[in-house]
Amino acid sequence: MSADTSPKNLDANPPVDGSELIRFDKVTKRFGSNVVLDELDFSVASGKHVTLIGPSGSGKTTILRLLMTLTSPDSGSIKVNGDYLTHEQRNGKLVPAGDKHIREVRKNIGMVFQQFNLFPNMKVLRNITEAPVTVLGLSKDEAEERARELLDMVGLGDRCDAYPTQLSGGQQQRVAIARALAMRPQVLLLDEVTSALDPELVAGVLDVLRDIARTTDITMLCVTHEMNFARDISDRVLMFDAGRVIESGSPDKMFTEPEHERTREFLSAVL
Ligand SMILES: Nc1ncnc2c1ncn2[C@@H]1O[C@H](COP(=O)(O)OP(=O)(O)O)[C@@H](O)[C@H]1O
Ligand SMILES: [Mg+2]
């Protein structure tokens, strides 16, 4: 294994904890000389809703992109469901994961982006059925049935045949949420999903997410500046600054009596 791809701090015999869905262990990520994540440790238990808050540029999106394997850590390890995300065991050795392993682990993870990222050339229904058919191997009928249920859930049951550009931003984002859920992920990553929306469209999207938080057992890792929403849905809030979690706790504690000066400053600027 080459030195470049060999992560430091990798724990070859990790403790088994069935309830831990996501675990970052001393994850460092640099862009050039910019250390974006600095030996970051945190974990998310199965079924919990965790919100990341912190200033712009502090590395929140990078955390989610690492989980989606859109980028990889310089050192440290990330586990999903007890499996290393970017490494796998082969002949008793931990080696950089092959595409197949990454695809398998990533099936557990769905992401919704700030900019929706729908497939512009596909109608709404096909946006949702595409991955379940090609990645999960569902039949077209099965995938369409599930897609229609999800579109009903996000209040767009009547827009199956629209193209993304025929929808408002809020509607597009609700399609993107349905698309992520169609893969039946264990965890949903939400990256400032209402930041690109006109103000009057924000509430509809947040209502859909509140519904998902209340009625499903899906784990949520959420980056948001919507503090009322964060307070409603979160089991835990992590304040993130300069590549590390500087404070975490229940939403009550974090929003009413944060201990850290940086948290107080940040909250007074956004609330
Ligand atoms: N692909 C990239 N190339 C170079 N720098 C990047 C890249 N992606 C992110 N960064 C830098 O990493 C830092 C953290 O970015 P990001 O994770 O997007 O922060 P946040 O989501 O908290 O605003 C920023 O300084 C940003 O400029
Ligand atoms: Mg971001």
Largest sheet: 6 strands, mixed
How many helical stretches? 9
Q: Please give the share of residues in helix.
A: 25-40%
Question: What is the H/E string?
Answer: EEEHEEEEHEHHHEHEHEEHH
Provide the gyration radius in Å. Answer: 19 Å
Ligands:
adenosine-5'-diphosphate, magnesium ion
What's the N-to-C terminus distance? 48 Å
Q: What's the β-strand tally?
A: 12
Proportion of β residues? 25-35%
Strand order of the largest sheet: 8-9-10-3-11-12
Q: Mind explaining what this structure looks like?
A:
This is L-cystine ABC transporter ATP-binding protein YecC. With 271 residues, the protein is α/β, with parallel strands linked by helices. The chain is 35% helix and 26% strand. The strands form three sheets. Strands 8-9-10-3-11-12 form a six-stranded mixed β-sheet, sandwiched between helices. A four-stranded antiparallel β-sheet has the order 2-1-4-5, with helices on one face. Helix 4 crosses helix 5 and helix 5 runs parallel beside helix 6. The radius of gyration is 19 Å and the shape is globular. The chain binds adenosine-5'-diphosphate and magnesium ion. The site of magnesium ion has 4 residues, from helix 1.
